[in-house]
Structure formats: C-alpha cells, structure tokens
Amino acid sequence: MGRQWGSAMRAAEQAGCVVSASRAGQPEAGPWSCSGVILSRSPGLVLCHGGIFAPFLRAGREVLTAAGAVFLPGDSCSDDLRLHVQWAPAAAGPLGGVERGRPGLCTPQCAGLEPSPPASYRRRLQQPPLPAELLLLLSCPAFWAHFARLFGDETAEQWRFASVAPDDEVPEDEEEDQLRLLGWFALLGVRLGQEEAEEERGPAVAVAPLGAVSKGAPLLVCGSPFGAFCPDIFLNTLSRGVLSNVAGPLLLTDARCLPGTEGGGVFTARPAGTLVALVAAPLCWKSREWVGLTLLCAAAPLLRAVRAALGRLFPSTAALAAHLPLEVGVPWGLPLREPGPPWAAAAVLVECGSVWGSGVAVAPRLVVTCRHVSPREAARVLVHSTPLKSVAVWGRVVFATQETCPYDIAVVSLEEDLEDVPIPVPAEHFHEGEAVSVVGFGVFGQACGPSVTSGILSAVVQVDGTPVMLQTTCAVHGGSSGGPLFSNRSGNLLGIVTSNTRDNSTGATYPHLNFSIPITVLQPALQHYSQTHDLGGLRELDRAAEPVRVVWRLQRPLAEAPRSKL
C-alpha cells in the first residue's frame, strides 16, 4: 500500500477486534458477531456495532426507535447474553515494533487449512477470546438526521442496507430490523486477568475531529469479514479507499467491505492510524443494484455520545471516561489536492428540465457534460457549483453530438462566471495503471454534493495510435455522467465520464467498469470554441471514423439494440 501506509496499517490492526454474542447454554443459536475498535486495552474498552444485540433486547427491537432513544444501559439485554472479544496481542518485536503475521490456524472452521506453526509461535501471536460485558448501547442523533434526509421518504424503497443481495428473500420485519440497527453501536468492557492486563499495553487510538478529513482523502478500513467466522484468516483484514462523501457524521467510502465488518474502524494515513469512523453498513443497494459504497458513522460524535451516556449511567465512575481516546487537534490538509490544483471542486451539477447529471468547468463560462443529460441544442440548463452557498447559473446548450456519434458530449455556455470553481489542466498523456479519481453527483445529486471515488486507469483504448476511450475501476453511478476523471498524481483532467457497464442479458450493472472520453479528443475543439465561438471543431466529433464507432458500440449499441447507459 506504499510507505505512507506502513504505520497506519500497524495502528489499524492493533485497534481492530472481533466481537461475538451468544446465549448461555445455547451455542447453536448463534453466535452473532461483528467487528469492533479497541479504545483501550487496559482497562479493556471496545466500541462495536450494535446490530448483534437485537436478539437480546428485553423490550424488543422497537425500543431502538422509541422517541428520544439515544442510549440504553447494558441491562437492556437479557441475562443470558454472553460476549467475547478477540484481538491480536500488542506484542513487541525485536526492534520494539508490533509483531506482524497471522496466528496459527486453530479455530474449528479453519482447522486443516494449513500446517500449524511451532507452539511457541502460536502462543506469542494467538489471543484467545476474552469475556466481555455490555456497558451501553448508543446511537448518534445527527447521523440519523442526515440519514433520514438522504435515504428517507421518497427514496426509502430504492435503498437497502443488507448483507444479502436484493434478489435474496428477506422477511420484511428483518429488513426493518436492519434499518433500525443501522446507526446503533455498543460500548463493551473486556474482562482481563491480572497477567493479561499487564501484557496488554497497546498504543492509544487518536480520533479525528468531525469535519477534519476532507472529501477525497485516502482511508484505510480494518474489519473482520464474516465476523467471528475463522478469525485466524479474516481477523483485521484491511481495505483501502477514499472518503467519497460527507453529510455531517454520515460518511461514505468506496473502500470494499464485506458482511461482518460492521463496527470496524476507518483510519487515515496522516496522522498515522487516526480513527475517523466506524462501519455502519458495508453493503449498500439502490434500485436493486450494488452501489460500491460503504456507509460510515464518524467516530468523534460517537465518542462524545459515549462520554455523555457514561456520565448519566455511571456518575460515580468518571475514571472510565478518562480512558476513552481524545480527538487530535492538528491542522489537516487535503491529501488528494497534492501536488495538483483543488480539482474536486471542478465538478458541477447540470439540470435540464427533469434530467440531471454532472459536468466539468473547462472555462469560466463553459461547461462540458453528456448529451444524454442535455440532449438538445439551445436548451436552457441550470448549473450548480459545489460550494454549499453557491448560486445557480443559467446556461444554454450550444452544442450536442448527434445520437449516432460515439462521443456522448454536450457543451453549455453560461450567462455568468462560475465562482470558486477551478479550471482543471487538461492532460496530454495517459498512463495505464495510474491512480485516478472520478468526481460526480451520482447517488445523491445536489443533496450531498459531489462524490469522489478512486481506482486506477485500467485501459487506454486506441485507434491508429490515438486514445479514444478510457476505462477505470472507480465506482461510477447514475448521475455521474459528464463528471470529470482526474489523475491523482498530477491533478490533471483525463476525461469525461459517460457511463458504467450494464449486462443486458442479466440486467446487472457494474459500477467499477466504466468508460470516459479522453480529454485529448475534446480539448482542441473546446479551446477553439472558447476563443472564437466557432462550432466547426466540435461538429467534427460527429464525423468520427468507423473504427472509433466500433469501439464505442461495445458501450453504446445501435439504436435498435438495448442501450448500456447510466
């Protein structure tokens, strides 16, 4: 993952754990399990997802949605609840660093997968499950407020936050339970013996203040896929992505997460291993399609809620709150804006009647978007820039390619300059494998500002030595059409996103396989129009050669065949 991630990876792995819950005397009824974050090793304090406690609530799951329910004491769950926490030991290596590696394969699920290492090695790296108790269940009211704004009301039926595909049969009451539990977390006390307490002296976790991490910043997720299943293999698995979008304490990342990582920690590279958030829902589905984003709850407001709840439930044990991690107080930069310009702000929202999509400003009064967003020349469109208090600017479509043209492009001339919108530098060359990002208003539109997703430039398709199509592994969703594709290294504009991929035989959409028009195809004509207002260069796009049309027909079939469009 690169040199900058070394210390962050070690810190994340040392802060990760897996939590399992079962009923006393009924191991066959469970266990329920999830991931968690170690707030303190001595005394043992763990913050995990609250979903696994639903079967044990004395008053039933409805108590989670009761008016004013912000936290519940530990005795809200039945007496037969049994909790265990498993984490990697904070063992120091010869140079004082954390010992890396996986423990011996000893759990029943993993037995026989590989030869066991020497006993001394196993004793040093293997940490048996430790008993724990539930101190409190809590939620973040601000998280729920933003969740209701983004996912509630008219869009509720389109969204699912489940560990199974939408086509799988899930009882309606179970779906409702999953929604109730989405933003609930739990604070656990881990019971350590005297010998264990002396050994467990791991590093303290630092917490990022709310809003300190910028959209597009790289993130590292540490969780245990499938929870307590085979922790010898899956304990503290790492996944990397970026902070894709922000709505108060509700965060989104494009890091790949799996069921069981609920409650896992999300960390930054700088300062190394600083806790940003916890996973609330690893899989999100919209209109029965996986969107490739993971829902997070910011850690800072959660820990503030923990302190407040502890003060009310355990007023005589203020010492417990003293062991909770503190928020860091250093200035934070914008990692993806180095060394290039602040390119993420170049994306704009384009509205044409009831249709909307993304666009990119290529001049103070010139925006490029897709034809299927603004299909008619002379059409009036409304363009919104990314700052929250910005004023929308009216514009007119001065050019749109013909339906038969392989390049899905429209050009909008604005009546006024767009304020605070940087003009990106167009790239001249493309490098397969380089890190790239897509910025667009997919998924949420203007409700949450533009989203940033990361990946690599997976292919540069050429015709006669000239790039005519770019493919990336960034997650691209409906509404991202017309958005910019940037190079992370240089910050230069690489292309204009046109679509993701849809399998017409199955109906499945693949957000991580998508297509963009290289900016080198458009730049000469855009520059000529910007200087002369002559559309001649843009009209040449409609006369693309047949080999170019053949390439793009893989994405845009002929009119009589089903289309693969956003």
Automatic annotation (TrEMBL):
It is an enzyme of class 3 (hydrolase). One of its GO terms (cellular component) is peroxisomal matrix. The keyword Amino-acid biosynthesis does not apply. GO terms for molecular function: serine-type endopeptidase activity. The full-lengh TYSND1 is the active the proteolytic processing of PTS1- and PTS2-proteins and in self-cleavage, and intermolecular self-cleavage of TYSND1 down-regulates its protease activity. Keywords: Hydrolase, Peroxisome, Protease, Serine protease. Gene3D superfamilies: 2.40.10.120. Its main location: other. It is found in: Peroxisome. GO terms for biological process: protein processing; regulation of fatty acid beta-oxidation. It comes from the Eukaryota. It holds the Pfam family Trypsin_2. Its EC number is 3.4.21.-. Peroxisomal protease that mediates both the removal of the leader peptide from proteins containing a PTS2 target sequence and processes several PTS1-containing proteins. Catalyzes the processing of PTS1-proteins involved in the peroxisomal beta-oxidation of fatty acids. Belongs to the peptidase S1B family. This is Peroxisomal leader peptide-processing protease. It comes from Sapajus apella. The lineage of its organism: Eukaryota, Metazoa, Chordata, Craniata, Vertebrata.
